[in-house]
Write a structure and sequence with these properties.
By secondary structure, this protein is an alpha+beta fold. It has two domains: about 5-75, OB fold (Dihydrolipoamide Acetyltransferase, E2P); about 80-220, Trna Endonuclease, Chain: A, domain 1 (3-Layer(aba) Sandwich), CATH 3.40.1350.60. It has three helices and 16 strands. Helix 2 (about 145-160) runs parallel beside helix 3 (about 185-195). The chain is globular, with a radius of gyration of 18 Å.
Length: about 240
């Protein structure tokens, strides 16, 4: 996925989950944050951020905050809309016969439905921006919606679907995601139950540039025996 027009800024503050104050060429601007998660370990005063310039002149905010540089790690893309877009590009290279985004199954709408021969697939996509000691953790805030999706996928497996949850990792040097049970134990429990039922877990590390992000070649698939669902409670908040 490519961005059309980006600039650099310096993060100042985040008055609410939708807006941030960022210095652009020395001027304090109010910008839209394209991620409603906490991102507390990323959006720190003085952090260098990447902004996309809006092409809509009638918008109240001229910029979208899409990425931030984390000390010791590098660039982390926090654009919540990016994950489905890079997965769509990636799926187009995976030789499925049919791919449909935003597919309704049961009481949930899943990110992707695919077909290959007579096999049917459901995929839910989650973006991971929380990193501790080289490991990614999800979620960074409680997500009842995420628990609901996992339980629906578990049921869909029983109906013959091939189901997966794909963790997009929009930062380099991180290749694994674990459930952040310190923040939301129910998500970790639901993830473990889903894996035991046959839901596959995909880790999709990305190549991350200021103006472009794509799934790298070192993505991997895990089963119930190898994906870990524990987090260091004393560190993850």
């Amino acid at each position: 996925m490519k961005y059309n027009n980006i600039i650099h800024g310096i993060f100042h503050s985040r008055p609410n989950r939708f807006l941030a104050q960022v210095y652009v060429d020395g001027v304090l601007e109010t910008v839209h944050v394209k991620n409603t998660g906490r991102c507390k370990e990323l959006l720190l005063p003085g952090a260098e951020v990447i902004l996309e310039v809006s092409d809509n002149p009638s918008r109240k905010t001229k910029y979208d905050l899409i990425a931030v540089y984390k000390e010791g790690l590098g660039l982390v893309n926090i654009d919540s809309q990016l994950c489905n877009k890079v997965v769509a590009e990636w799926l187009a290279e995976q030789e499925y016969d049919f791919v449909k985004a935003e597919y309704t199954y049961g009481a949930s709408r899943f990110d992707f439905y695919m077909e290959k021969g007579d096999k049917r697939y459901l995929m839910e996509v989650k973006g991971c921006t929380l990193e501790i000691d080289g490991i990614g953790y999800f979620p960074d805030a409680p997500t009842e919606r995420g628990v609901k999706h996992l339980r629906e996928l578990t049921e869909a497996v029983k109906q013959g679907y091939h189901c997966s949850v794909a963790f997009v990792i929009p930062m380099e040097g991180v290749t694994e995601v674990r459930a952040n049970v310190a923040t939301h134990k129910a998500f970790g429990d639901a993830l473990e139950e889903a894996k035991q039922a046959g839901v596959e877990v995909l880790f999709l590390p990305c190549r991350v540039l200021p103006e472009e992000v794509w799934v790298s070649l070192d993505w991997k698939k895990t089963g119930s025996s190898s994906a870990q669902t524990e987090s260091p409670a004393e560190e993850v908040v």
